[in-house]
Queue: 2 jobs
Job 1
Amino acid sequence: MFYLQKMAVGFYGKWRQNAYFRNSYFLINKYFYMQVWKDYQARHKDRFLDELLELLRIPSVSARSEHKDDMLRCAEMVKQRLLDAGAAIATVYPTAGHPVVYAEKMIDPTLPTVLVYGHYDVQPPDPLDLWHSGPFDPVIKDGKIYARGSCDDKGQFYMHVKAFETLVQTNTLTTNIKFCIEGEEEVGSPNLAKFITTHKDLLRSDVILISDTAMLSMENPSIDVGVRGLSYIEVEVTGPNRDLHSGVYGGAVANPITMLAKMIASCHDDNNHITIPGFYDDVVESSPEERAMMAKAPYDEEAYKADLGVTALWGEKGYTTNERTGIRPTLELNGIWGGYTGEGAKTVLPSKAYAKISTRLVPNQSSKVITEKLLAHFESIAPAGVTVKASEHHGGEPYMTPVDSKAYRAAASAIRETFGKDAIPVRGGGSIPICALFEKELGVKIVFMGFGLDSDNLHSPNEKFDIFNFYKGIETIPFFHKHFAGA
Ligand SMILES: [Zn+2]
């Protein structure tokens, strides 16, 4: 049976540019496509997984300079895997930071071109002692792959590589496919903008497809229609010119940690609104219709709390949990330090205290404007007795994708084919800073087809990715290409 299918599909591949064959094929294609892809994937599924595990063993931590060689090794492996999958060209492009891997297979310039974006770098694994197994020593337990990067984003971009392989090896490619897999997403993509602007022709495409987000659940498939923007600052508070004896000087000199804590606490009012002047000025309020639509997404507050181990939720008054993490901007402390944090006690009144603070932004907030407001605010509220220095880290703009585009509809159709139900459009809480820039420079829309789950512990210890989701992504993505090509 398989050989018959293979022959039929090979025949189709040869004649796909012929309208007559394409139309007649259309009548029976669903069965063939599904069966041929299914057969191919079933025969290679163990290898697909093994290859992902090998990729996960490379500690490609972009934030740490000691991993520079690992980053290079990882980029080379991604390049080789793309060639093995069927790319005609694959290149590691050096940048001022970590390299970008580019690959393509152009079958016909008159067919639509899909650009897949992903990232091979990962977040630092700390704190290490909270991992149940080594972050770069992937372990499979209860059908889940535990490793840093398993979901964000190696496991997810690798679904595209294997979907691409499926299409090439079964001779059923109906789109041109390009890959842009970068190595600096987790540090704010500082060099990707330059890469995009200097390689516009190379990256020319009709849609950008990204799997770096999550679904509500496998029972309730969803598509992200937006991601939030980001503004990130660091605050340094300086008091006395040296660490002091807290008995001799305590009570007489402002303690930088206390002052910093007061400043931070003042950033939210009693309703948990953010108090930075002008912070909400440009926020586009969601319509009652959009909020009503969001309210339809399944949500179990007790399960949500139980999963996180919290007894109560917290957030901006007047908004639901889904709204707080989707359509509203937020301000979070990411780290705070100063004074003595070692073993035992040391009675010290420290000279300095620090905090890392980030905000998530929604349309039409601007990362640059918010960063300026944050910096000015922290310097302006410095209490007497300390000096405050605020500086900027990376940022990114919010992004929205229209649900009436051909690309969105292709993603929705693909999900309907493999999940057997309609995807719910949702607003994602995370950020993919490069989205706004991609659209500006390449003039095309982005579609998010995430197959992760919010509970995948992204950026946390014990990051995981369900093997089921990994295979489901590989199964679904070829349908996107088929529908996007109108085949
Ligand atoms: Zn990511």
Note: The radius of gyration is 25 Å.
Job 2
Amino acid sequence: MNLPSAKLANSGSLITESPIRDLEAIIRSRTPLIAVETGEEPQIVQMVRQIASRFQLKAYRWTVTEGLQAFDPCDQPLQSVVKSQEVLNYIKTAATHSLFVLLDFHPYLQDAVVVRYLKDIALAYSRHYSTVVLVGSTMPVPPDLQPFTARFRLPLPSAGDVRGIVYDVAADWGAEHGKRDVQTTNKAIDLLVRNLVGLTATDVRRLALKAINDDGVISESEMPEVMRAKYELLGRDGVLSFEYETVQFSEIGGLQRLRNWLTVRKDFFLGDADTRLDPPRGVLLLGVQGCGKSLVAKAAAAIFGVPLLRLDFSVLYNKYYGETERNLRKAFETAEVMSPCVLWMDEIEKGVAVQEDDDGLSRRILGTFLTWMSERKKPVFVVATANDIMRLPPELVRKGRFDEIFFVDLPSPPNRRDILQIHLGKRALEPAQFDLDALVEATNGFSGSEIEQAIVSAMYTAHAQGHGLTQADLIAEIQQTRPLSVVMREKIQETRDWASDRTVPCD
Ligand SMILES: Nc1ncnc2c1ncn2[C@@H]1O[C@H](COP(=O)(O)OP(=O)(O)OP(=O)(O)O)[C@@H](O)[C@H]1O
Ligand SMILES: [Mg+2]
């Protein structure tokens, strides 16, 4: 499919009607001052211009560099009006039935004279009927002006708007490249649009151009890159991190049932299948350390083909002491903007285990989490992992919170064989050169992580002795290892007993 380089008739104008109508309603309700916090300056200016022409009002735009400029040259002030106080004086004394957009005005609001001028203008509204729209990246309205000021928020572009912007960007790109058409497919465009929802118009344009730019192609394979760039644009640090490394299920030994469970739900999660079934919301993985819980979180993102975000509870608690709940809510917001995505909450017991001595903080965190779990609308698939199930609050493991609670146990003999093959293979060793049956036997009670560690240590030993890895090196290393299942036998048994009637095995 080509996206033609000529603009398409239906390519969606940048501004849809509804935000204009909202702004119009505020202006018509005789509000003298309107504060707009946005980075989308051209859009606001354009909207004011349209409203002015619709109601036959005069309209002006002011910046500190260009002074006051009328959109219609007939309305241009006779002498130049440049300084902030000059423009306010002009509005106060000379204007009627006009709209003024003052750009980057926030620094001037710290000046008492400016504040008084604005108040004078507001108080005299019924004489001049002029409205002042203050625009800036932030717009803290001084208390004296608040009674006269309405806030206006520019909504983020809808999916339809995003599509329109992508088409416009493709058309502009084509025009600049000798009328070449952008090469793409319906599927790739749909994915791009879905991935760019949640960003401002400027950022949508920037990322769409980035996707097209190097080769004039929008392809599905570019989407991970787009999502990465999107995450960086959101500019949120700390609690959430973008996990660049995902894992294919082929790198995981066993856990077949869990793999199937995820695979059959993929289309429902992405909204590509029967809408009578609720999309999957998340799983809780409990189990023995080192048996692949973290691997599964990474593999889930790979199966669904969506980004993986990780929520780090230790950062949540330490870094922003006192703002913990707000930061958790912000993390959820970011995850929704990044949706569809997998949100990995590792060692969830560290975040939501209720402690008695923290003034109720952990309980509030748990409440915030449970509320979001039940109310979220966007496709964010939660993979929560926990080692210490005894510390998990009962509310969390109650039926219905997660779609399923899986128990990740020590690997069975066939799974140990798979794990041995995977980890030998990863280190360029030929599994067929080893007696796998004997290794499977010897690693009884080992976790996947311990099997991997045994291979790594045996390789070091063999290297130090100046020969390649042998069966004897492996067996010697395995025999020296005291696996956790021995060291913590009771604890693991206790976990298993607890899990037996509350969870589903992964195999
Ligand atoms: N089933 C498995 N197949 C292949 N490798 C495995 C498996 N289980 C564990 N491993 C290896 O052990 C490493 C540690 O596993 P992982 O971090 O997924 O365990 P975990 O259950 O999250 O442990 P923890 O409770 O300590 O966080 C993995 O990076 C992988 O190399
Ligand atoms: Mg882990």
Note: The chain has four domains: 17-152, 158-235, 277-395, 413-487.
